[in-house]
Amino acid sequence: MSPRHVVLPSPVGALTVVAGKGAITHLLMDAAKYRPADPEVFGPEASLDEAPFAETASQLEAYFAGELREFDLPLAPRGDDFHQRVWALLRAIPYGETRTYGDLARALGDRNLAQAVGTANGRNPIAVVVPCHRVIGSDGSLVGYAGGLDRKRFLLALEEPPAGDVGRLF
After folding, report:
1. Per annotation, catalytic residue among 28, 60, 93, 132
2. Peptide bond connecting 52 to the previous residue in cis, omega within 30 degrees of 0
3. How far apart are CA 134 and CA 71, in angstroms?
4. Which residue among 26, 38, 51, 85 is least crowded, i.e. fewest CB within 10 A of its CB?
């Protein structure tokens, strides 16, 4: 089955969801810096009722309503082994928490990989669901987000713990 796509409205702007062989391959913000150059990636527009688009739309709606903390979708991001390892670490960052690029580099076994982690993070093809927005600078600042820092700030604020809980995300 060739890739197909739908465009969904969201509080952070239009989200293009691309799926092939029953799994999400891309979830792109309209402002994403790294969009696939290959027009075949997107394929024809699909019906929102088609799997896995209906479930993706439902889960995104629940997430933006503050009712979903963990996505359960079939994912097939395209990337090399290093990118896949970084994206797996991103998926392991719990809702309402952040990590630094250095934290992720240390989790990979080499604190000197922070810049490479940043590059892989910036090339995450499945925004929001693979939560690259949960990665911040070592000083707690908001840095580097392919969808723009305003969107990153919005997503982190959405996930902000209630006052009096753990503390601020950024």
Report:
1. 132
2. yes
3. 15
4. 38
